[in-house]
Amino acid sequence: MKEFIQLWKEGRTRLTNQLGNIRQEDLSKRLGDSPNSAGFLIRHMAEVELLFAKNVFGNMEVKVDAKTLKAGRDTGEWMDLEALLELTEDAGRQLEIAIASQEDWEAVIETKKFGKKTKAESLGRITTHTAYHAGQLAVLLKYGK
User: Could you give the CA distance from residue 145 to residue 26 in angstroms, rounded to a whole number?
Assistant: First the structure.
């Protein structure tokens, strides 16, 4: 189990290593005609991590309101850097608790979004989801306007 937490934490550094350098004015940046701002991406990553912590890994203490998923697009409301950083920190904490509580990594989870996956495969899914969007965020912060 310790190895799974280490793997997830290392993958998540693609996001966390960027957070200390983000400024308030960066949150509205977009890349060309891209529909998503930096603020939206940060919020989205945290929400999905919270959803995985609760719905996939069973951390029922998690409270999540998946606003980016409900909206289905960037509505421009995710521009409070402090709130986004707090949400991201909470998502990391809750997902770590959820990962640490797992015993049977071969147990199969089924969701509407991605079908049947083992818990180990699900961990790969959330790790790569965050890393994927963190890469988008890096490019957006560097080249976006």
Answer: 8
